[in-house]
Structure formats: structure tokens, C-alpha cells
Amino acid sequence: MSRFRYLMNTMLLMLLFPSACSAAVKEPAVAGSFYPADKKKLEADLEAYLAHPGDSLDDGRLLAVVAPHAGYVYSGVVAGYSYARLKGKDIRTVILLGPSHYAAVNGAVIYSGGGLKTPLGVVKVDEALARSLASDREGVKLAAEPFEREHSLEVQLPFLQKTLKDFSVVPILIGRVTPESYRHLADTIAAILKKDAKAIVVISTDLSHYHDSKTAGVKDRKVLDAVERLAAGDLERLLASGEGEACGGGPVLYGMAAARGAGATEARLYRYADSGDAFGDKKRVVGYGALGFYKKPLSAAARAEILQLARETVERQVNGKPLPEWQGSDMRLKADGAVFVTLKEKNGRLRGCIGSIQAYTSLHRSVIQNAVAAATKDPRFSPVRPEELPNLSLEVTVLSPLEPVSGSSEIEIGKHGVYLEASGRSSVFLPQVPVEEGWDLATYLKQLSLKAGLPPDGWQSGRLYRFTAEIIH
């Protein structure tokens, strides 16, 4: 083939298939309406919104933030409270979750084009990561059309451009929530957050719409309280019943599950306001909230509080007195949590151990409920008697979320507890058990199988999950 003919064929292919040579960049849809189209004006507004985070930055790892998506004149101040937390952080990957306002979406859609443009420039899309998250079978598809008019994610981009440096995004729109897409995205995003310390999730939602300010405040506070407590069940109930409202309720549920799966222990409300705070009309408002999801170890004060609560519960239960009512303010104890309570005699012999594998209620309630159960409902032992109390030691184990493992090589003695499901049976050992018993990994899994009523190698045909724990003596 002659050089001339080769060049002509190459040019023809470029004309016919331009996307093979350069990925498409989406033009902004709401610049000039939801936020300024003029670069200087936009930068000045963003600097004002980001100037006052409200208080000192939080410790622990920030896994996700929630920000509103209304026009900046209405919600920009509130959004600034979330994005101020990102300033100075080395974040390279941002997974954006927002509601689809205009396109009918069943499950979720992901934009995998080359970039998203704003007046501040082009935000790069991590195309490889976007494609890896897609699964037609799970109802998570690649599509560009639903993003054409959508503002819920676009309005987040200038804030990211102003606070981060070298980063890319994965834009995801949530439509009708489906179990398959919820489970798939929660698990895969959680895996990304656990693997990459430079990744974060941004969840886009407004709250209640077009009520008077007082009514909006009541509805919104219920939603925000459920989110702060990481109580997905309560949030689903509020949204389904109409007691609470959030146009991005689906994205919040998906993002909360992903953060929880990555180890989030609590959420924090940075700021709440409504549109009337910006313009004074309190008769018909939209609510806005800014929050962050954190992974934090228990503080020394929280550990002492948990241990005292468990001990007081056991003593009151055994002595026939009313159970304690926790009145504290620590958000970690308010957030949903899974715990085991263990009672031992002076010689170290087990006297009772009951717990919860999954977080289904607040940590403080879980401590109380399982302390009662450990003292009186462990089927292996008779209920604890009052005269035994002085000689009993108490231990509370706070569990991380369960994580599926593909094989025994992913389990580390002394670090991981293990939960087994097989043939309709299940069993669990806390991380401290194999250390106390002197087991190696093979013995650990053998004993786990036997505890479930299975053959010694029964774990090999079952499903294994690992978890870590904070142990309070």
C-alpha cells in the first residue's frame, strides 16, 4: 500500500470513528443557570462558599460527603461546608452518586466518556474504573444520554475543581432503586474505598421540597438523624412513608452502604439550611444538608462508656432492676453498630457470650441487648446469679462490617474474626478466640466448621466472611 493511500485510509477511519481516537467531553448543561458561566464570577463565588467550614476539621478517615445540588444562590453555602473538608486532602478518585431527574433509569447508569466540562475546565473521567463498575446483569449500565440535561452531578464539579488538584471522577446516576444494583454498587464501591486511601464518594441530594420552613425542618431532621446514625433501615422507612424526603434518597442509601462496607463508623452533620435562609421566603422551601461519613477508632472515653454500660446492664438484669437508659451524646454510640458481649469467670472460663453479626440498631442499644442476652440467654449456660457478679470479667467486642473472602489465605490469625454460612448452618468466632486457644489457621477453620455442626472441612463448601474488631476489656 502506498504511503498516500495509507494516509487517506487513516483519515477516513478517523472521520468515521472519531471516538476511537479521542474520548468525548460532555459540555455543561446548567452553567449560567445553576451556577455562573463566567469563570471569574464562578471562582469568586466558590471562594466565598468555601471560606467557612464552621469548625475544626474532623479526625479519622473521611470516606464520603453529602452535598446539595440546587442552584448555588440557594444551596452553595451549605455545599461549601462539605467541600471545605476536602481542601488539602490528597484525593485522586471521586465517585459521584446523584439522582436522575430527567431520564427514567432502572437501577443505575454510569458515564464513561472522557471528561465533563465546566467553566473552570475539563474534569477527567476515570473510564477504566467506570467500565469496571458496570454490570448489565446487576442493572448498572453504561450510558451517556441520561447525563445530557442532568444537574445533580454537574453542580458538584466546580466545587471539586476548586478544592482538589489532580483527580478524576466516576459519575453515577441512580434511578429506581433495585436490590441488584444496590448490592453491586455498595460492594464494589466499598472495595474501592478500602483498597484506595485516595478515593472518596460524593453523594448529591436535596431534602424536602416546597413545604413551609417549620414542616420542612421536622421532615429533614428525621432524615438527617437517620443518616448520622448510619441507619439505612430507618432512612428507607422515612422515605417510603413520606415522613422524610430526599430527591437523592437512593444515592444516599447506596453511598451510605458503600461507606459502611468500607468501615464507616459514624456520620457528622456539618450544616443544615433551607432555601428560605438565602432569600427570606419561608413559606415554600427546599431543605439542604451537608454531612460526612467517617471511619474512626473508638475514643478512650467511648470505650470506657461502652464497658460501663455493659457492666451496669448485666448487674441490673441479674439483680432484677430496670435496665439503664443511655443518655450520652457520642455519635459513635448513636450510630448503628454490631457487638458481642462476653462474660468470663476469674479462671478465664467462659460464662456467656452473645452478639450481633450485623449492625441493626444503635451501638448503645446493641450493647444493652447483648449484655442481657450474654447474662441470661446463652443456651450453653444457666442464667448468671447475683452471687457470681463479683467474680465475673466482662469484654465487649465491636465488629466491623462483614467482608466476603475467596479463600483462607485472606484470613489472618489475631486480626480477623470469621463467619461461616454453609448448608443452612452458620457459626462465628471473634478475632481473639484463635489467639486465646493457640490455634493455627487450619485448626481455626476446622473448629469453625465443627461449631456449625459440619464436618471438619465443611468451611470449604460454604461462604466465609471476615471482620475486624475493637476489643474493650
Low-pLDDT runs? 10-22
User: How is the main sheet built?
Assistant: 12 strands, mixed
- What would you say the CATH architecture of the largest domain is? 3-Layer(aba) Sandwich
N-to-C CA distance: 79 Å
**What portion of residues belong to β-strands?**
15-25%
Number of helices: 15
Helix/strand/pairing class, anyone? alpha/beta
Radius of gyration: 26 Å
Name of the CATH class of the largest domain: Alpha Beta
Helix percentage range:
25-40%
- At the third CATH level, what is the topology name of the largest domain? Protocatechuate 4,5-dioxygenase, Chain B
The name of the CATH superfamily of the largest domain reads LigB-like
Number of domains: 3
Give the strand tally.
20
General form: globular
Overall pLDDT score: 93
What does this molecule look like?
The protein has helices spanning 3-16, 39-49, 72-83, 127-133, 157-163, 179-195, 213-228, 232-241, 249-261, 276-279, 300-318, 331-334, 363-376, 432-437, 441-451, and strands at 25-26, 61-67, 93-99, 108-110, 115-118, 121-125, 140-142, 168-174, 199-204, 209-211, 266-274, 285-295, 338-344, 350-355, 393-399, 403-405, 417-422, 425-429, 463-467, 469-472. It has 473 residues and is α/β, with parallel strands linked by helices. It folds into three domains: 26-295, LigB-like (Protocatechuate 4,5-dioxygenase, Chain B, 3-Layer(aba) Sandwich), CATH 3.40.830; 298-392, 2-Layer Sandwich (Glycoprotein, Type 4 Pilin); 400-473, Dna Ligase, domain 1 (2-Layer Sandwich), CATH 3.30.1490. The strands form three sheets. Strands 1, 2, 3, 4, 5, 6, 7, 8, 9, 10, 11 and 12 form a twelve-stranded mixed β-sheet that branches. Mean pLDDT is 93; it is low at 10-22.
